[in-house]
Amino acid sequence: MAMSHPSAATAAAARALRTALRGSVLVAGDSAYESARQVWNGAIDRRPAAVVRCADESDVVHAVRVARHHGLPLSVRGGGHDWAGRAVREGGLVLDLSEMRAVTVDPAGRTVQFQGGARAGDVLGATSPFGLAPVTGTVKAVGVTGLLLGGGYGLLAGRHGLAVDNLIEARVVLADGRAVTANAAENPDLYWALRGGGGNFGVVTSMRCRVHPIGTVLSGMILHPAERAVDVLRGHRDIIADAPDELTVLTGFFGGPDGRPLIFLLPVWCGELEQGRDLADRFDAIGKPLAGRVCPMDYANVLGMFDQAVVDGRPTEMGTRSVAEPTDEVIDILAGAAHEATSPLSGLYVHHFHGAASRVPETDTPFATRRDHLQIEIAACWEPADDGEKHRRWAREVSQRLSEHALPGGYPNLLGADELPRTVAHFGPNADRLLKTKDRYDPDHVFSAVASLDPTTTDPGD
């Protein structure tokens, strides 16, 4: 691709930023620009006008003000793992928080504060020495802030809810350049909106969350051949039907070392170990696995089990459907998807939502899908040299087959920018309140790179 040269507005903005910021400013032609515009999904190829690598909240404030003064659209990058690439807006200014990863733990108060670019591994690494764990997703490399803003399914959902359910306070730089605190007492409507309403309200520079006394858990990656998928998934259904809060079970499939799909079960028991000792017997009853067994493990090791699947630069397309229960029809679709996968790098990940997560009233946070359900993450991944269309088609067909069995809406963190009706359906009775909050804190819709509820937003920067 031919190198583009910064426009007059971009050059002027870059000069203004470089005189005021502690961090760096990159434009086309700078040696680090090409790497700075890349995100996790290798299918995303966008050229922002500038990338601002912020060093602190003050940098974010200056960057927002300069971008508005020069008429540059904004997007925000934390971990860079949004599959749709909304962190990088074509021709816009990227506020890159990836170097803002500091973490501070208050072990007595059982809280943790982290900057907007912190990854799950950063937070867990800081809390683990105190026998504490945050509620995050399932991969250490993924940014906590972006995950939390959309909800945050994870391995502790049954006992401690979603990531959003553990947010105490956030610092936010608004569209007018003001930095504010949002919590239950200060800017409470903004605090409400941040807990599942997405990144449309400002730049979150730090968060303070509850953490929990979790060290050793009962867990294990249990692997079965795909030929046993129906039996394994039915066994999984029997176990989760009466699962206590302490047990959350992730299941699905991914490609094995020889390229053939494997069905996996990843239970996490985070209660008293003696009370969970019969778990191994219940999973053994499903049938003899190829590998793996439930046993005591350090929770930090459990959270790292999928790290190797998150490879920077690998093209990806994702989809999401949620089902109330794993009926025989749903199980057949999942088993069929495993056999029909067009790439050994693709997978399905079925997240277990129950217990504490399901007891939060639907209007307490924007995340309204509070009934027990399974969130099915459809991940088509392939090598950069492959033609991606067949892999994309596989993901879309799996999603379509599940649609007639699915709950309304879908998980916003996995919905594409062209899926506005499903986003609105997910927010349910909270959609109107979100729109009003958006109008209050960002009336000019400066933060529109993330898919929003605004039907007039036709260029979401995807």
Automatic annotation (TrEMBL):
Tell me the keywords, alphabetical order. Answer: FAD, Flavoprotein, Oxidoreductase
Q: Which PROSITE patterns match?
A: FAD_PCMH (PS51387), OX2_COVAL_FAD (PS00862)
Necessary cofactors: FAD
Q: Name one Pfam family in it.
A: FAD_binding_4
**Leader peptide range in chain numbering:** none
Under the heading InterPro entries, the entry gives: BBE, FAD-bd_PCMH, FAD-bd_PCMH-like_sf, FAD-bd_PCMH_sub1, FAD-bd_PCMH_sub2, FAD-linked_Oxase-like_C, FAD-linked_Oxidoreductase, Oxid_FAD_bind_N
Residues in domain FAD-binding PCMH-type?
A: 44-214
The UniProt family comment states: Belongs to the oxygen-dependent FAD-linked oxidoreductase family.
The name of this protein is: FAD/FMN-containing dehydrogenase
**From what organism does this protein derive?**
Streptomyces pseudovenezuelae
